[in-house]
Design brief:
GO terms for molecular function: methyltransferase activity. Keywords: Methyltransferase, Transferase. It holds the Pfam family HIT. Its EC number is 2.1.1.-. InterPro entries: HINT, Histidine_triad_CS, Histidine_triad_HIT, HIT-like, HIT-like_sf. The protein has 143 residues and is an alpha+beta fold. The chain has one domain: 2-Layer Sandwich (HIT family, subunit A), CATH 3.30.428. The chain contains 4 helices and 5 strands; from the N terminus they run αβββααββα. The protein has a 5-stranded antiparallel beta sheet, with helices on one face. Strand 1 and strand 2 form a beta hairpin. The longest helix is centred in the C-terminal third of the chain and has 17 residues.
Amino acid sequence: MENCIFCSILAHDIPSHKVYEDDKVYAFLDITQVTPGHTLVIPKKHVSDIFEYDETLAADVFSRIPKIARALEASFPEMEGLNIINNNKEIAYQSVFHSHIHLIPRYGKEDDFAIHFGNHMENYRAEDLATLAAKIKAQVKSE
C-alpha cells in the first residue's frame, strides 16, 4: 500500500525491531514504548482496520497473540498484566491505517498508561439493552 508506514516496515524500507515473524504476521516493538516491551502485531496483508478482516485473516492474526503475549511475560517477569488494544478508525484513536494490535505490558498502576470505561448503567434499562442486542444480533445473522 502506498504511503503506509507498516507496509514500508514489511518491505524493509524502514527499520524495525522484530520480535516475531511468520508468513502471515509480523510483530515488532512500537517506537513509542508506552511501557517496556510494547509490541505491535500486524497482518502482512494490508487491511486498514478490523472491518476489512475476513475469518481467515482474523484467525491468522489473532491466533498469534497468545504466543507473543507469553513471550512478553517470559521476557519481563516483573510484568503484572497485559493490555491488548486494537483501535479502529480515527475516532477510536487509530493513527496508522494498517490494522495493528498493541500488546502493552503493565508493570503497575503508575506505568503511564490508563484506560477509562465510563459507567452508564443508570442510562440503560433491561428493555434498552434487549433492543440494542436484537439490533446487533440481526446484523450478525445477516453476514
